[in-house]
Amino acid sequence: MKCRAPQSLTARAAIGFAIISCIVVSALGFYLYASAKQALETRADYSLIGRIERFRTLLQDLYNVRQMEERPELFESMLGNEQDVRIFQRVGEKPFIYVNPDHMAVPPLVPVPMDQNVGIEALHVGIRADGVGVRWVSALAEVGGRAGTVKITAAYVLTQESRMLAAYRLRVMGAIVLTALFTSLLGFLLLRRGLSPLRVMTNRARQVSPTNLTVRLPEKNIPSELRQLAHSYNAMLDRVQAGYEHLSQFSSDLAHEIRTPVNTLMGQTQVALAQPRGVADYEALLISNLEELTRIAHIVENILFLSRADHTAVTSRCRPIVLSQELEKIAEYFEGLADERSMSFLIEASGIGHADPVMFQRAVNNLVINAIRYGVAGTLISLTARSGPEGFSVAVENHCSPVSQEEANRMFRRFYRGDASRSLPAESNGLGLAIVVAIMDIHGGRARAEAHGDGRITFRLDFPVKGVE
Fold it and tell me: What is the helix, strand, coil percentage profile of the chain, to 5?
């Protein structure tokens, strides 16, 4: 089945505007035509009535009917069209004046009595064979001096009126056709000019590419109907640009993180293969390689978790947890690692929280590991948790080198580490705090860092009343 190419918006709007204009002009034209037709017919009706009344008046000035028979030209001069009908006859006798050029059949008419005026209701509406309207009327008239009674039958053929109405119909139809043509053309030109901002937006959109994501649609000097579209499109481009830059940075950081252990594996293996080694040397090499492979596996595991979280493929199984018990278990687990740096824990927790226990432990574990790794040796790590009507919060506070609030906010970025440790091999791969943010997004909460001026930094997790199921 062959698909028909869609019409342009300008063409469709112009055609629709032309159709509406034709409908309006047609309705107005036919209304005026009907009004003119009614006015012409009413004028013809009153003209016929006036002639009948003049015939009556003229008969009253005569002495007898014979005078009227001898002077027919007196009544012929009072006719309107050549096709008009006039019949004079004594009641019950044959007409003594009979003028009927088209030989039209006289319809049955009830004569208007002599003591009554002829009115519109006395007219009989007829149609000639060619479709032209005819008005019939019959009335009784008294000849002057009571010389007799005459029945007058007259008809008015609407010949001139029909010609005028036919010419008017042609003008109305011509007006409709011209209206359709002019409104289509003018509407097309007007819409083409009015939609010119769309062409500007289209040209701007064509410039967008992976290498040129800074192009934005104009939001000024455009119609209000398009301004919202341009604003939404620009917001979408902002998100795309941010996502693309994030992906580029993520790829670069990932390559950097993977390159270090891979280079270590390759270097150690090349050194070992340079000359024969003993069993102990090979065992040491395998142990070192295993550590590097474990680091790579840990990076891959974290990346897979973040990827599934980004695509909402990770779901939480929330249930009530006792906050004090959870924090005590975490502190007990990391107590040995903290002792190596002469650090200790202070726990202040109360209440019940609602979260996925495994994800909760992983998020808090990452914060505690971060506090131990980057905290000042010999300081205190504070673990606090409070529940309330709007949910519950967990805070991990430690002492570290002074940082600004802006730098504290950047700590949640993937692969972020301080510049001093960036080029050194370290246990951290810069994904721990990013995983914390992903876990909080899954729960519908948020993670934030608060940098204090005295070197303290607090990482706070705000959970909603009930986690996302």
Answer: 55, 20, 30
Handedness of CA 414, 420, 423, 429 (dihedral sign): negative
Q: Distance between CA atoms of 374 and 408, rounded to whole angstroms?
A: 13
pLDDT band at 21 (very low <50, low <70, confident <90, very high): confident
Q: How many CA atoms lie within 13 A of 41 on its CB side?
A: 19
Indicate the residue type of 36.
A
Predicted local distance difference test score (pLDDT) of residue 469: 45
pLDDT value for 425: 42
Q: Are strands 352-355 and 319-322 parallel, antiparallel or unpaired?
A: antiparallel
Residue 455 · residue 402 · CB < 8 Å: yes
Give the Cβ contact number of residue 230 at 10 Å. 19
pLDDT tens, residue by residue, 219-232: 887 777 778 888 88
pTM of the predicted structure, to 2 decimals = 0.49
Q: How many CA atoms lie within 13 A of 158 on its CB side?
A: 27
Nearest residue to 265 via CA among 247, 286, 246, 279: 286
Q: Parallel, antiparallel, or unpaired: how do β-strands 344-349 and 380-388 relate?
A: parallel
d(CA 233, CA 215): 11
